[in-house]
Amino acid sequence: MKYKNILITGGAGFIGSNLSLKLIEKGCAVTVLDNLSPQIHGDSSPLYNSIKDKVRFIKGTVLSHDDWKEALEGIDVVVHLAAETGTGQSMYEIEKYTDVNIKGTSIFLDILANEEHNVKKMIIASSRSIYGEGKYECPSCGVVYPTERKDVDMKKGDFNVKCPHCGVDTKLLATDETSKIHPSSIYGISKQVQEQMFMVMGKSLNIPAVAFRYQNVYGAGQSLSNPYTGILSIFSTRIKNNNDINIFEDGKESRDFVYVDDVVDATILGIEKDEANYEVFNVGLGEATDVNTVADTLTKAYDSNSKIIISGNYRLGDIRDNYADLTKIKNKLGFEPKVSFEDGIKKFTAWVNDQEIVEDKYEKSIKEMKEKGLYK
Question: Contact 347/356 with Cβ under 8 angstroms?
Fold first, then answer.
């Protein structure tokens, strides 16, 4: 690789540990800065254990100038993954999310602007959440970017996305990188700000910056104990504890599920290729899969008797649908996702079947949201 010394913040996490191992295979020297958050890692983290003897590990926080300075020694490329990532949780832990995601990023960029360093490139993990409801087509108004859905409609069981101009139901389209950015959660806002900070300061300091708007990342190694992570892990933990699956809305809401190996490959292309410099890219499978399909697939894969309950409940801040248009990343970086949803689920569930059953904390997370008025 062109660059040999790489810092990954949050490098003991799900994406970061997989990226670390792949970069080591390519001959890179990897430094990891991670606080080993109990919400993500629990009492013992297999992700951390998989890398601890292979990387230069610094247990620290992105909120510490000193930890950043230590981690940046001799570094060519920074991949900034460290972040608080729960969409629902972000709506009532606002200070925590803005501190870690925005202030943590500002400390890093302040060092680049004012102190000596060797950084030649920087990658920021952005998110599909910055698009809010994404891109749709109205039969009368054409391409539109709807605002958040109304509580009054969802209370009546109408979860469809409406045209912001005429109010009729719309048709989902793939979201490309030129689509309107209007996040509907504090988490999404923080990722938008991170991305903009990287791009503005990258150009100002002449340090190439690359932003990857990851879709819903899943795969072997994902935290099964974190009730604020993706639905594949949440549903799997529910099933393994013989609990029923509560599906929000009508179950027809959809996401773009991308396997972690593909996310790692895309990120490495961003590190290696000059064509990525100062660009933003969607990273996904490029397909929309609804939640009902996810639940059915998992219960069959685990041969489970857990009931699938379509509750009609909903969370404020959630989007209805989103899937990625991958045209740009295919054309500029040559990225093609290799793992289909079907093959990815087989890999994921096979891994889950080999894990010890962990405590199901889902009900606790729902209780927290109910207390804050965010769960309806």
Answer: no
Other beta carbons within 10 Å of 115? 11
Under DSSP, the state recorded for 11 is: T
Q: How many Cα atoms sit within 13 Å of 97 on the Cβ side? A: 19
- pTM greater than 0.85: yes
Q: Report yes or no: 336 and 330 within 8 Å, Cβ to Cβ.
A: yes
CA 6/CA 17 separation, integer angstroms: 13
Ordered per-residue pLDDT tens for the chain, 376 residues? 889 999 999 999 999 999 999 999 999 999 999 999 876 665 567 889 999 999 999 999 999 999 999 999 999 999 999 999 988 889 999 999 999 999 999 999 999 999 999 999 999 999 999 999 999 999 999 999 999 899 999 999 999 999 999 999 999 999 999 999 999 899 999 999 999 999 999 999 999 999 999 999 999 999 888 877 789 999 999 999 999 999 999 999 999 999 999 999 999 999 999 999 999 999 999 999 999 999 999 999 999 999 999 999 998 778 999 999 999 999 999 999 999 999 999 999 999 999 988 888 888 888 888 888 888 8
Single-letter code of the amino acid located at 97:
Y
Domain boundaries in the chain? 5-132+178-223+256-287+321-344, 136-173
Q: At residue 288, what are phi and psi to the nearest 5 degrees?
A: -100, 125
- Report the relative pairing of strands 56-59 and 136-138 from DSSP bridges: unpaired
Which parts of the chain are beta strand (E)?
5-9, 29-34, 56-59, 77-80, 121-127, 136-138, 142-144, 171-172, 209-214, 216-218, 245-247, 254-255, 257-259, 279-283, 289-290, 308-310
Q: Which of 3.40.50.620, 3.20.20.210, 3.40.50.720, 3.30.10.20 is the CATH number of 5-132+178-223+256-287+321-344?
A: 3.40.50.720
Question: How many other CB atoms sit within 10 Å of the CB of residue 334?
Answer: 10
